[in-house]
Every structure is written in C-alpha cells, then in structure tokens.
Amino acid sequence: MNYVKEYLKAIQGGAVIVSKRVHKQYQQLVNDIDNPGRYIFDEEKANRPIEFIERFCKHSKGEWAGKPVTLELFQKAYIAALFGFVDKDTGFRQYRETMFFCGRKNGKSTLLSGIALYMLMADGESGSECYSIATKKDQAKLVFDEAHNMVRQSPDLSRNIKKRKTDLYFPATMSKFQALGKNSDTLDGLNAHLIIVDELHGIKDRQLYEVMQQSQSARRQPLLIMITTAGTVRECIFDDMYVYACNVVDGKFQDENFLPILYELDSREEWQRPEAWGKANPGLGVMKKPEDLKRKVEKAKNNPKDLSGLLTKDFNIRDTVYTAWLTFDAINNQETFKLEAFRNCYAIGGADLSITTDLTCATLLLMDKDTEKRYVHQMYWIPSDNFEKRVQQDKIPYDIWLQQGLLRLCNGNSINYRDITAWFIEMLNEWEVSPLWIYYDSYSAKYWVEEMEGYGFRMVRCIQGARTLSLPMQQMGADLQAKRINYNNNPILKWCLTNTGIQTDRNGNIVPVKNQSAKQRIDARPPCWTLMWACWTTTRSLFRQCKGDEVVPRGRKKFTNLKDKKVRLIGYKSGRTETGAPTQVYYDLCGPVWANYRSLSGSEIYFAKQAGSQQEVIFTVNWRRDIVAGMYVLYRDKAYKIGYVDDLEGYKKDLKLYCETSSAVNASVLKGILEALEE
After folding, report:
1. Helix, strand, or coil here: 567?
2. How many whole angstroms separate alpha carbon 630 and alpha carbon 640?
3. Nearest to 358, CA basis, from 386, 319, 336
4. Strands, E, within 368-517: which ranges?
5. Strand partners, 648
6. Where are the beta strands (DSSP E) in 515-622?
7. Which residues, 6 or more positions from 97, have their beta carbon under 8 angstroms from its beta carbon?
8. With contact defined as beta carbons under 8 Å apart, do 352 and 524 qualify?
9. In terms of C-beta density within 10 A (0-12 exposed, 13-18 middle, 19 or more buried), how is residue 145 classed?
C-alpha cells in the first residue's frame, strides 16, 4: 500500500485535519511519485521499516504496554516518504535530513525508537552508528531507553541485540545505538549513520548539530532526524532550522534531500478553536486525549502564565517565556528595507555603551514622513579577545552575526568607543543619513559624548527609569504588534526583544528587565526605548525645519552643525628654490580633519566686503592653537585662504575659519600645495 497517497487522500477528503504546510508537502510528495525524475518511489523500501516496527516493536508504557506497536497513518506516511524515495541509479535514499515538527504526546519517542532499531539492524549498513542527541543526556536517553525496552520485550530483538554499558550493540553487523549529551567538544571522530536530534528547540549549541552532521559525511545514505516541539528560546538553531524548513515547503529554497513535516497551527488565534487542534497534534484522539488538551486550554484562558507552555508544546507556536514583555508573534516582523532608500535623510540616533561583557549597540531611527512607519538600522560590537570563548560558552551565534555584517569586533578585551563614533560618521558620509540628535545612556559615556560633540553631533542624555521608559515601552509594544516598526528582520534585535521582560512599579509604570539568564542579553533595549521616546514625542519635528512649519522632504537641513567634510589645513613657511630665489614652502599641518562647511549668507558677504574682506565661506573645525590667518584650507582639491580665525571668545571647543573663495587663490599657490602633499 502507498501510505503517502493514502494520507493525502485522507487530508483532501477531510478525514484528517493538518496544517497548510503539511498539506502542501504531501501534495508535493505525491506529485514526485506520479512524475519521477532522478528519484523514484520504491514502495517495497517504503514499507520495509513500517513492517519491521509493527512486527518486532512493542509499547513499554501506559495502557498499551506490552502490546505490539501499530503505527498511525500519519506515522506510516512519514516513514514511507523518508525511506521510499530513492535514487533510480544507485538505490540510495533521497532524503538525508528531515524535520518532524509536532506537538507533545503524539508518539514521537515510540516512532523514533522504532526507526532507530531498524537503522541499527535492518538498513543494510555495516558498522552502523546510531545516536540520539539532546541538550541533556537524560533527554537523549528517552529515545534510547524506549528502544531498549522494545528490545527487552521482543524475543527476536533481545536474541540479536545486546545491552552494553553505554549502548545497544548488534554483533551481526557490529552496529551500535547510543545516547549522547551536549558536550560537542568530545564528539569529533564519530562516523554516524543515523542521528536523532530530540527536542531541537532546547539545543543552543549550534556546533553540536554541525559536528554531528559532519560525522555522516563518509556514509552512503545517512539520515538525520530532527524531531521537536516549538520552544521559547529565540534565535537559536531551532529558529534557523524552522525557517529553513518553512522555506523548503513554501518553495523559496530548493533542497531535494531535506524533508520538512510541520504539524502546527496556521495562526496563533486557532489555539481556542478545538476543530483546529489536530493541525499540531496528528495523534489527537488516539495517542493524545482531547479531554486533557481541552482542560489545559481552559486553564490557560484563566492563567496567562500557562499560555506560553501550551502554545509552544501543544500547538507548536513559537513564543517567548511567560514573563516576556511581548509574544514572539508581536515581535516577529520579516519585512526588510534598503538603507539606500533613506539616503540624504534625517534620523534620530541612540547608543547603549558597555565595557566588556554586554553588547554595545548603536541605532538610527528613520521614518517615512507619509506613513510615519519606523525603520531601524543598527550595529553591534563586542570585544575580539573573548569572542571565540563567548561563542563556545554562551552558545549564542555571534559568529554567524559577524559573518552577516550585523556585528563588529573591537580590538582588545573592551569596547573601543571610537568604533561607535566611526560608525555614525560612516552613516553620515557613505549614506548621508544625518542624526538630528543622538540619545545616550550616561553610563560610562562622558568621554565618548565629548568626542561625538567634537564631530558636531548633538548629544542628548536619556535617563532610564520608570517615568521615562514606561510610556515609550507601551507605545513601542503597540507599534511592534501593528508591524509599524521595520527593523530589517535583524536577528540580534529580535533576540534581544524576546529576552526582555517587564517590571511594574506601584504606580503601574513598566520598565524593561532581563527576562532569562545573564547570557540572554537585552542590550539592544536602551537605544530602542530612547528612540521610541524620541519618535513618540518628536514625530513632526523629525520632518520639519527649525524655523516655521514648512515640511521638509526627505533631505538634509540646509544649515547643520555637523562636521561631515574632510579637509586639510595647510601651513607655509619661507624657503628658497634650487636657484636660491625666495619662495613659500607649503606643508600639511596635521593630516585630514573633520569640518563643517557653509557659504556665507548674502548679508554676511555684504558686511564683509564693506569691511574690505573677501571671505565668502566658513569652515568650522575642532579648536587648536596652530591655525592663524594666511594659512589655507584644502577641500575637494580646492584651496581656500584663511582671512580671519574666530576662536568663539576663547571657548576652546570650535574654531571658525572665514576663508576667501577658491577662485581668489592663485593657481600657483594651489599647485604648490598639491605638490607638497604628494611629497
């Protein structure tokens, strides 16, 4: 019998309720059966493991203990698809990796134990190495122990399989089945034929998955089975594999060796609709009692603390822990944007500075003036000295984020705040995104603020407390749920938000707190809250000029204090040519410096000429002692002669250099300056 076709027939006839992605996947499988290409469906090979399990394996727990395993149609269809599609030339299996996603208490352990014993004894692989892995060895042993119990209850299996100290051993082919824990540092050198990843959502160590997957490279037709419910830890390997599986089902990715079977609710709201519960629970009514599930649902309606566990474990809805500020559905937004679309635009900036352990984050908040939709662009930093250690110990994918360009490293064992300054300047010069002001948390920010102000950025302190953050948090939460904040699907920010909880004071104000362990950072939080506060209070001013109420289209202010132009300050001294004639020798005073550049207004030029001056442009640079009238400013290969230096009454912060236009500078002078720089 072709169980794949039988299952699709039951789905289409309404006898079985499944998720949209399960329906779509089995439609594709049947299409592959009817229209074979490189791979064909071998019904005999498809049914062989099914017959093995039902003939030799027995239940060990509950009301079915001691009775032969009788697989349900959804289990038979899955096994048939997994083992039945083979290469028409070699006969080897098509599917090498699979994700089986279904709610708890749907016979996962029994299914996996049966498959493991088949792969150990009857798959035709000599020296087969089969492993069950999980975050904790006790979890991995659930499948192993169930397989051992099946062996003990079956005379045929017990005669052929021996229980050793750490594994089940099949002497006829020198094969073994063993449970392994998360210590991936000791797993190199394995030669796995079957890998069962039990409860993938609990595995934070990406290296564990990668090491085990690489251990299969020498096998002819290895199999890696990931079986799991949803979880509450975000941006871990589970999220990566789930998104990948969805993309394969949806046709966005082509992977002919990956089989995704995703039993889940199609939307979060379906958890209160009993007729939809079967979408995430294919064994409902046989393996899983509807009365128990109904009781859990009613309890969760009255106790929000139970809801997160119900959604993730019984309905396969990805969520955050119950103490989280927002649900994963509210946070998750896969919209993206190109920063190029905001070239020559205003922004509001924010920064959260750390020293050694926490992430440092810089943020630009941009807005669409028509829709008032928020767009968030960010960069993160951590020290380079402990980078590898943090990837290994924290089990957080900093290395992946670094490769994606979402994270940068600071040399040494602490954060170099100059890197944050350089990023804001980079945004200004390369993308022409101008922060009207930048909010900062005053912690350890004194010298950095002075540096930023030296470059002309306007810095505004943000005090982080219940009075200042409560209203912005509420506003930001509402906007996240309404999908009015596009954060470019940044996984770091998404991860930080899912790890954010709330604390409520006696006045009903809320403040963000870390929701999980110390390793679960929420360091992206402060810029977001300060930006949200700024956005909430200054939405209109973000797109208006300083005077009047004239709406400015996307573009920069005509007058700005930002030192966003690179110039060179050129001095000169008396010298002589090779023939002994007197001349001026030009030299670079200090290398490139940042300056603000503007032309004098008409009235300023008029009064300057009345005073006999030819100055028409102003360069504003950081204060220094060695600039005097008569020197030159070189900007864009044009020389401007300094006619007057205004030290702003000795304030020692800025210097204003009033200069003649480049056309007033003799060509021979410019030639001499350029030649001096070349030397």
Report:
1. strand
2. 10
3. 386
4. 374-383, 407-410, 433-440, 459-461, 485-486, 500-504, 510-514
5. none
6. 565-576, 582-588, 593-599, 615-622
7. 213, 223, 224, 226, 257, 258, 259
8. yes
9. middle
Cα–Cα distance for residue pair 416/362, rounded to 1 Å: 13
pLDDT of residue 540: 43
Kindly provide the residue ranges of all beta strands, DSSP E only, lying in 538-581, ordered along the sequence: 565-576
d(CA 397, CA 376) in angstroms, rounded, equals 21
List, in sequence order, every residue forming a beta bridge with 410; answer none if it has no partner.
383
What is d(CA 337, CA 355) in angstroms, rounded to the nearest whole number?
31
Query: Is pTM, for the whole model, over 0.90?
Result: no
CA distances from 594 to 449, 476, 622 (A): 16, 36, 8
DSSP per position, 102-154: --SSSSHHHHHHHHHHHHHHTSS-TT-EEEEE-SSHHHHHHHHHHHHHHHHH-
DSSP 268-333: GGGGG-GGGGGGT-TTBTTTB-HHHHHHHHHHHHH-GGGHHHHHHHHS------TTBSS-HHHH--
pLDDT mean by block of 10 residues, the chain; 679 residues: 95 94 96 94 96 90 81 96 95 95 89 94 92 83 91 91 92 92 66 89 75 86 91 70 89 92 90 92 90 90 77 80 67 90 87 76 86 89 85 78 92 88 90 86 75 84 71 79 90 82 65 54 44 48 37 38 83 84 86 85 71 79 87 89 80 81 78 80
* 536 CB-contact burial (10 Å; exposed 0-12 / middle 13-18 / buried 19+): middle
Q: pLDDT at position 214, please?
A: 86
Ordered strands of the 167-170 beta sheet: 162-163, 167-170, 175-180, 129-133, 194-198, 223-228, 97-101, 258-262
Q: Which two tokens stand for residue 282?
A: 């294919």
The token pair at 70 is 């009788």
Sign of CA dihedral 8, 14, 16, 21: positive
Here the tokens at position 255 are 């992977």
* pLDDT at site 531: 46
